[in-house]
């Protein structure tokens, strides 16, 4: 396969998950809870679970393909470090302002998915010096083994989180708020480094599969996707290892919803099998999406970071417009630190699902034209900085 050409199936699949991402971020400003016993609310959140795993996995795959084009591991390693640090900086500055529409940096910082991707790229910069099988084995091991942490006694887990290295444990695995000194901002970690570095490393090794001739590549994708789904079903049915959220425990949601309601923070083995399996299985089908719809979706997949940087302020601005139309004013909650972490006030600020999806479709449609422009510019006459966005 020529390595100087884009792989259409990756662009289409990544485009699908980028579009799905907007559903959850519209949900944030709609005041709709992240899941619940009602199927409509539950699946509005659940379908977006596929986004972060695909984002991290294909970031690794893209790094592998870029390394092949460069033909220089040292250059690739330098690029991953620089791009990773740029992503971390963007998360703590531009993206933070887009989420909150305020500049109150002394009170709140969010370590979200872009933060996680940035640090994982920095770590991947060291891993790329290993043989491909070793990188793949490392990734699979991290994904498969990290849930042994679930068997820590409550006392042991508490001791780790209260030790002098508690901040490191939170960044690596537990997540949650970290206070920067006595008067510094609170950094809230949604995404820990583990197991996501495993996902990115596995995606990097998977890049070797994507360079095979199409028929063999498709067979491997089907085998890997089906194997992951079967393993998820087996582990979830046994309900012993791979997720701390046990579906056999009674709850308000039906059993079928509890069965697929796996843990995302930190991402469990079962969560990653449930999401990455269908994502990999979709690739052969995505290769056939050559019509108008497939090309539109692929546009978003060709410029994922550009889309990400645009879609949050676009959704936030749309939420401001909705609030102005519905209430005759802009609800102050839309400028809070941080709407994702603070439930809306008890004044009825909640959208219907119909309104949520209407705003989602409008925002994605509006973003298509700038994304198409950027994709064409990046492909034909790119500026140097475009390598990082």
Search tags:
389 residues, mainly alpha
Topology record:
Elements: H1 8-30, H2 39-46, H3 51-70, H4 73-100, E1 108-111, H5 113-127, H6 132-145, H7 154-162, H8 166-174, E2 176-179, E3 186-189, H9 196-210, H10 214-238, H11 255-259, H12 269-287, H13 292-302, H14 304-327, H15 353-380
Parallel strand pairs: 1-3
Antiparallel strand pairs: 2-3
Helix pairs in contact: 1-3, 1-12, 1-13, 1-14, 1-15, 3-4, 3-5, 3-9, 3-12, 4-5, 4-14, 5-9, 6-9, 10-12, 13-15, 14-15
Largest sheet: 3 strands, mixed
Number of domains: 1
Q: List unreliable stretches of 5+ residues.
A: none
Q: Helix count? A: 15
Distance between the termini: 26 Å
Mean pLDDT: 92
Q: Helix-strand pattern, N to C? A: HHHHEHHHHEEHHHHHHH
What order do the strands of the largest sheet run in, or round the barrel if closed? 1-3-2
Structural class: mainly alpha
Oligomer: single chain
Principal-axis shape equals: globular
Count of extended strands? 3
**C-alpha Rg, in Å?**
21 Å
| Fraction of residues in H or I helices | 55-70%
- As a percent range, the share of strand residues is under 5%
Structure description:
This protein is mainly alpha-helical. The chain has one domain (8-388). It is 65% helix and 3% strand. It has a three-stranded mixed beta sheet. Strand 2 (176-179) and strand 3 form a beta hairpin. The two termini are 26 Å apart.
